[in-house]
Design brief:
Helices cover 48% and strands 13% of the residues. It is built from 14 helices and 10 strands. The strands form 3 sheets. A 6-stranded mixed sheet has the order 1-2-3-4-6-5. The protein has a two-stranded antiparallel sheet with strand order 7-10. The radius of gyration is 22 Å and the shape is globular.
């Protein structure tokens, strides 16, 4: 048997790994040669016959939804993702409160996908557009199964949580920058409220909901795949494009002109609602809410990341938002 790989450092993870391995060996009819625990819910399994990715879900209903959704994607013509597979096992995989689904393993490329290159940014957008095109043809079948995508209400809640942490945040961020962040958020939400028809009238599709770079996977043959559909919802494609813009703007120097070079944004940049939405500091609020909730500001790497997001990119972002304000007047 090959050496087992573990990535957890928390107390008790070794014990969990050993228990999980013992359980999987009791269930798989294939001989497990190697097991790599990425997180408690994401596990690579190599057997004497195949390689699989196991993914954990809190409920069997969530697992079955993901199985059905990826099968529908493939059936309707979107092949650039994984399918759930069913190797020979003795029973449904259920271990210590988690249901595990078994997915095809996509062999990753030696060069990981990132938003640093123009080629990747363009290819990611094109793949997302393909995904929307396919899901628009069957979103009506999933209306009772997945939530409706909302943005204004979600961001209001995120802003409230950020504001409730102000007394703590003043230890890390000066008052002037904090005031500016809150001003951006209020201006953005006010403009989105007045122009929200964009998000109502646009034809609906199934949204991915988490278009971070790690959910784009280039395989060993160079083909780009879209993965991880935990946050799917039903709504207008502009919501995914908005999130994608938020992810790539630091890589294009917070330039509206460079964003307009992508065909997917040319029409959206003429919509006031979209321009107002681009100003909302969703990433800053999300990350500070998370590090405060988890206490991870004590982790130097995470602290440096959130400070770069907030302070390091502040002036380019401010210039970008000033441009948005001119465009909406």
């Amino acid at each position: 048997m090959k050496a087992m790989s573990m990535t957890f450092n928390q107390k008790g993870d070794d014990d969990y790994f050993i228990r999980l391995l013992s359980y999987l060996r009791s269930q798989f009819k294939e001989n497990i040669l190697e097991m790599v625990l990425y997180r408690k819910s994401v596990i690579l399994i190599k057997t004497d016959k195949n390689t699989y990715m196991l993914k954990g879900f809190h409920t069997n209903k969530r697992l079955r939804l993901q199985e059905a959704f990826t099968a529908t994607l493939r059936k309707e013509g979107f092949s650039k993702t994984y399918l759930f597979v069913h190797p020979q096992i003795k029973d449904t995989l259920f271990f210590e409160g988690t249901y595990f689904g078994c997915m095809e393993y996509i062999t990753p490329n030696k060069i990981p996908f990132s938003f640093q290159s123009q080629k990747n940014r363009q290819e990611g957008l094109e793949l997302l557009e393909q995904f929307h095109g396919v899901t628009s043809s069957f979103e009506s079948r999933y209306r009772t199964l997945i939530p409706k995508g909302i943005i204004i209400e979600k961001w209001k809640d995120r802003g409230k949580k950020f504001s409730s942490n102000i007394s703590f945040l003043t230890y890390f961020i000066n008052d002037k920058i904090l005031a500016e962040l809150l001003d951006w958020a209020n201006w953005s939400l006010s403009g989105m409220e007045k122009n929200r028809s964009l998000f109502i009238n646009e034809p609906y599709c199934i949204l991915h909901g988490d278009v971070a770079h790690h959910n784009f996977l280039r395989d060993s043959n160079g083909i780009l795949h879209l993965i991880d559909f935990d946050l799917i919802s039903i709504g207008p494609p502009s919501l995914d494009y908005l999130q994608y813009a938020n992810r790539i703007l630091p890589s294009v120097d917070w330039s509206i002109e460079r964003l307009s070079h992508f065909s997917q944004y040319q029409k959206l940049l003429n919509e006031k609602a979209f321009l107002y939405a681009l100003a909302f500091p969703a990433d800053i609020f999300r990350e500070w809410n998370r590090v405060i909730r988890e206490g991870s500001y004590k982790d130097q790497r995470k602290y440096d990341q959130v400070m770069d997001l907030t302070i390091g990119q502040f002036y380019p972002r401010k210039k970008f938002i000033d441009s948005l304000k001119m465009m909406t007047n």
